[in-house]
Amino acid sequence: MTNPAIAASGLRKSYDGRTVLDGIDLTVPEGTVFSLLGPNGAGKTTAVKLLSTLITPDTGSGDIRVAGHDLATEPQAVRAAIGVTGQFSAVDGLITGEENMLLMADLHHLSKTEGRRVTAELLERFDLTDAAKKPASTYSGGMKRRLDIAMTLVGSPRIIFLDEPTTGLDPRSRHTMWQIIRELVTGGVTVFLTTQYLEEADELADRIAVLNNGKIAAEGTPDELKRLIPGGHVRLRFTDPTAYRTAAEALHDATHDDDALSLQILSDGSQRDLRTILDRLDTAGIEADELTVHTPDLDDVFFALTGSTTVPAQSKETAR
Ligand SMILES: Nc1ncnc2c1ncn2[C@@H]1O[C@H](COP(=O)(O)OP(=O)(O)OP(=O)(O)O)[C@@H](O)[C@H]1O
């Protein structure tokens, strides 16, 4: 087995005596996406800063290796292997996108010719060629994020830390960013992604760790995490109160919501299960105005594990 891209044991950090990370273990295999999920203030950025050598862990932390290098004794080697795109953009708005890129090429000691080649290639790849000669301050939020990642890639990092890369982006820009992240991984890069969007972790991550109260509350593949909580349900909605009452009598095992005229029935969402529910409605001679199937998703896992109500992700109810 190859060495993991990131292997940290007992990662600890406190600020002013307040523990933010209470000895967490992280292992990220090469060429995968690992997502650290957590509510506001859980310590996601702190973890990124520690692993990218921007701050130092507390004494008592265990071994931390990034790209095979010991963080404590070889920080320069770690820095040479990683790229970090933080919540606060490294883009300088006063100069053009191209100039921002060339500046990065200089910082990485690329020759003039090589710097121009890499800049042109990355601007093209991130769909920024047309805007290359415009000041970055005129770019949209999505363009700035793309430029930020393009700048990170100038040094050809093997591991990239993306700290909430899509916060504040519109759905189209978010999907573009997801595509970029997938392409990076296809190219062999390891991505350490923090996000508050469960849907994002579900889409992209091979493994997810949920951070809560300084500890990893759960870790696994998206499917493993979803299996941690009980199954879903079917919701039937009615507009006619008489139809609702008849349905409630026919489906006596359902949970009733008299105000919303809706019934909720435990279900695994399978075709067979749905057919049984529909047959029971048919027998009673009623038709629901709306039927939705709710399968457990990472929102449910997150709420169950963290008790948080601050996550802005959408509930995944699929109308059928
Ligand atoms: N330099 C600092 N000094 C003191 N406290 C800090 C410092 N940096 C972070 N903290 C505190 O540590 C906690 C974790 O912060 P961190 O930014 O790592 O959380 P986060 O999970 O990234 O949150 P968010 O989703 O809001 O970005 C917060 O309570 C924060 O106020």
Given helix and strand content, the structural type is: alpha/beta
Which CATH class of the largest domain?
Alpha Beta
Please state roughly what percent of the residues sit in beta strands, choosing from under 5%, 5-15%, 15-25%, 25-35%, 35-45% or over 45%. Answer: 15-25%
Shape: elongated
Helicity range: 25-40%
Strand order of the largest sheet: 6-7-8-3-9-10
Key structural traits:
single chain; 320 residues; alpha/beta; Rossmann fold; 2 domains; 6-stranded mixed β-sheet; 5-stranded antiparallel β-sheet; 11 helices; disordered C terminus; binds adenosine-5'-triphosphate; membrane; P-loop_NTPase
What would you say this structure looks like, in words?
The model is unreliable at 309-320 (pLDDT under 50). The strands form three sheets. The protein has a six-stranded mixed beta sheet, with helices on both faces. The chain has 320 residues and is an alpha/beta fold. The protein is elongated and about 80 Å long. It has two domains: 6-91 and 139-226, Rossmann fold, CATH 3.40.50; 233-295, Alpha-Beta Plaits (2-Layer Sandwich). Strand 9 (207-212) and strand 10 (215-220) form a beta hairpin. It has helices at 44-51, 75-81, 97-107, 112-125, 141-153, 171-186, 198-204, 222-226, 241-250, 271-283, 298-306, and strands spanning 6-15, 18-28, 33-37, 64-66, 69-70, 82-85, 159-163, 190-195, 207-212, 215-220, 233-237, 255-257, 262-266, 290-294, 317-319. Helix 3 crosses helix 4 and helix 3 runs parallel beside helix 5. The structure holds adenosine-5'-triphosphate (ATP). Residues 15-16, 20, 38, 40-46, 196 line the site of adenosine-5'-triphosphate. Adenosine-5'-triphosphate binds at residues 15-16, 20, 38, 40-46, 196. Residues 6-238 form the ABC transporter domain. It is found in: Cell membrane. It is a peripheral membrane protein.
